[in-house]
Amino acid sequence: MSTQHALLISLIEKPSSGYDLARRFDRSIGYFWHATHQQIYRELGRMAEHGWIAAEETDQGGDANGNAAPNGEEKKNRKKVYHVLPAGRDELVRWVLEPGAGLDQREEILVKLRADAAIGPLGLADEMRRLIALHQARLETYQAIERRDFSDARQDRGQQLRFALLRRGIRFEQDWVAWGNELMPLLAMPAGDRQD
C-alpha cells in the first residue's frame, strides 16, 4: 500500500484541504497506515502531477479561524480543497485489484525478543510494559470510536465495512495486550531458569 492510495481513499470520502486531510487521516486511516503531515503535503503535490487529484481554491472571509476582519474590512484567505479526478479513481481501482504483498509483519519488538532468546536476558520488561500500555490505550480509543460511531444497527454497506475494520483493530489490540501480559513473567525470569 502506498500513502498516495490511502490519501485517495480519504479524499473520495470527503474532499479536503491539506490541513483538514492530515487531521482526518490521523483519526482514521492513520491508525493502520502512518504518514506525517509533511509527507501528506508532498504526496498531494505528486498526486496532482499525476493528474489524480485537483485543488480548487476557495475564498474565506475573515481570518484563518473564520473570525470577521476588524473594522468591517473584508479579508480574504485562500484555501485549496483537493478532490479526486477520474484518473485518481481509476488508479485506486487498479491498485485495489492488484494482488497484495502478503504478510508484512514488521514489528521491532519481535526481533528484539528473538535477540533476547539468543543472547540471554536483555532487560526488555520495561519496553514490553511500555508497549502493552500503548496497545491498551489504542484499544480504549478503538472501543470509544465503536461506542460513538457504531451504535446504530441500521448501517449502510460502507459503514458496515468501516465497522469491520474497526473490529479487526480491536481484536488485534486485545490479542496484543493479552500476549504481552503472558510474556511478562518470562521476561522477568533469569537466564538459568529458561528451558531451551
From TrEMBL:
It comes from the Bacteria. Coiled coil: none annotated. Residues 61-71 have a biased composition (Low complexity). Transmembrane segments: none annotated. Residues 8-92 form the Transcription regulator PadR N-terminal domain. This is PadR family transcriptional regulator. It comes from Cupriavidus yeoncheonensis. Residues 56-77 are annotated as: Disordered.
